[in-house]
Amino acid sequence: MLQYIADVFPNAAFSILTGVSAGAINAAHLANNTGTFRQAAERLAACWYEITADQVFTPESAMSLIRRIMVPSINKRHPAESVIHVDEGQALLDTAPLRAFLERNLQPVEGELRGVAENLRTGRLKAACITATNYATGQTVTWVQGRDIGRWQRPNRVGIRTNLTVDHIMASTALPLLFPAVRVGNAWFGDGGIRLTSPLSPAIHLGATSICVISTRYGRSRREADEPAVIGYPPAAQVMGLLMNAIFLDMLDQDALNMKRINELVEHLAPHRRDGLRLIKLLMLRPSVDLGKLASQYEIKVRGALRLLTRGLGTGEIKSPDWLSMLLFEDDYIDRIVQIGWEDARRQHDRLTEFFDDTVSTMTNGVQ
Fold it and tell me: For the whole model, what pTM was predicted?
């Protein structure tokens, strides 16, 4: 979708970039690229075409995964006592390859994304932010690097100024239990979508008046929504998929609905009575294909530890293994969903034209 926007709307400019979970990778690439938006989108697409499962997590056999889960390490704290514990950073999958992949493509200097600072200096960027979840406090933390911005605090949400690093991206993408938590400062963080009740809020706090959101959620029809995804007792994969959707996707739709309602209320208020509230133009782009159902077509190619997880959780028993779509990095699957994104953006050309005609001159757009 970003490639289509960059090709067809070369004057498009996003001065505010926000990202959560896998979206943090996209936002970081765009914010860190000092070339044109078109060049940034092309490089980002090239990264996704390049990535494979072994560049996200360490390939592991099913037996080694079972052995690691079943045989905890022993920490000898005292000759007379042994304490069984889980190693720091242990999870079902080791994401060291993802860190190496990000460092190779983003080329940080001492961990920091220096391209972000350069874009801020030249005025091409107002702010970039990445969101993660503090496992100790349960707070949603949004790390922000930008010009003339302050921190904010809401119930269980806080914005903090910092210089963005690869650690922030790794933390935001750390799927709970599957990927290891990431230490940032003195705290351990996981995926930013876990408790993010207002996904649009970072862009709004940073002053966006127009927001383009790219969602991975397929918009089901009423008939499709009523169709059972499984017959009989739900396997673990079905329950996991529902939990993943509740955590990572449901809040975005709810937040968009709330924004629509607030816009309708604000429109009925005289400007002097709005008390700081402003109208915000929202464009949400969605895939025309259920990515969970699409992922099920490629499950047969999964091998090793991930294959054990998919089979053990009963992925083959359901029609739409949504959780698998978050872990599937097969070449054919990636190629297909990139093509779907391009075609979906092309089909929504008129909506994109209206959005950019209204916003390109303001330079206060936000993209998530």
Answer: 0.84
